[in-house]
Amino acid sequence: MIQMYRKKLTELLSCEYNCRPEDFSQEKNILTVSVNHPQARVYNREPAFLRIVTTGRNAVVTADPVIHPFLEGFIHAENAEGHWLLTVPNLLRIESELNRHGYTLTQTHHMFLPDRRTEPVRARNIRWFYDNEIRPFYGDSRFPNAICPQYEPERPDRMIVCSYTENGEITGMAGCSEDAPHWQQIGIDVLPQFRSAGLGTDLVTMLKNKIIERGDIPFYGTAMSNLHSQNIAKNAGFRPAWTEIGAKPSPAKAAKP
């Protein structure tokens, strides 16, 4: 199943990294100038100072021209394979260069796409909410991953599925935001007392299946060390598809008026 989405993935990433879809199947790493694109996922309003992505082969790097001289030598070094750029020693070198310009690295994002059909096995008492029906949940600190903290018009929450006890107590929520046209990113929150029983996997599975039925693409992201979240993704039928990292203003730079 994941092969069905690979072409669409490289089309999306080519918008975001200012390159061609075929650049993700090259042997050598690619460096481009960072731009904004109307079909890209919207996480910042300004062109990225630095973003690095690999789909398993080479790496594509898009960045502000001011750091291109550093990046040219770095990404084209001998044996500089795509995954090599995202090892800790090399990220430390990149971090040092970013600090010179008032930026710091974000966390590494490990991203997943559907690989197989799965079905929920445990969750029974569920309820679906769509678009404006989601708004009453904003501000609820129990669900920092399933939905945005507030309504985000540039990447709106589209659907959530909630599970409940027989007494009507909410136990968990999976939600998706449309981060790019027809690209729905899934997040999951299960309340502490209901964890480790497969509920997270079931909610993510149901939401993934619903997104596919509606003709959109579900994707899932998690941090490098969040093994619990990664296992939910795998158990729900996802497979690792790409890894990326970016830069953000350092606290001192961000604090300047």
Beta-strand content estimate: 25-35%
Average pLDDT, rounded to a whole number, is 93
Q: Low-confidence parts, pLDDT < 50 over ≥5 residues?
A: none
Helix content: 25-40%
Number of domains: 2
Give the number of helices.
Answer: 6
Distance between the termini: 48 Å
Task: Report the C-alpha radius of gyration, rounded.
Answer: 19 Å
Shape: globular
Structural class, from helix and strand content? Answer: alpha+beta
Describe the main β-sheet briefly. Answer: 11 strands, mixed
Q: Element order, helices and strands?
A: HEEEHHEEEEEEHEHEH
Q: Using DSSP, what is the number of strands?
A: 11
Would you kindly provide a written description of the structure presented here, covering whatever features stand out?
The protein is α+β, with helices and mostly antiparallel strands and 257 residues long. It folds into two domains: 2-113 and 244-255, no CATH class; 118-220, Gcn5-related N-acetyltransferase (GNAT) (Aminopeptidase, 3-Layer(aba) Sandwich), CATH 3.40.630.30. The protein has six helices and eleven strands. The protein has helices spanning 2-16, 68-75, 88-100, 199-213, 227-235, 251-255; strands at 30-33, 50-54, 59-63, 103-105, 109-114, 126-130, 157-164, 170-180, 183-190, 217-223, 238-249. Strands 1, 2, 3, 4, 5, 6, 7, 8, 9, 10 and 11 form an eleven-stranded mixed beta sheet that branches. A hairpin with a 5-residue loop joins strand 7 and strand 8 (170-180). The radius of gyration is 19 Å and the shape is globular. The model has no long low-confidence stretch (mean pLDDT 93).
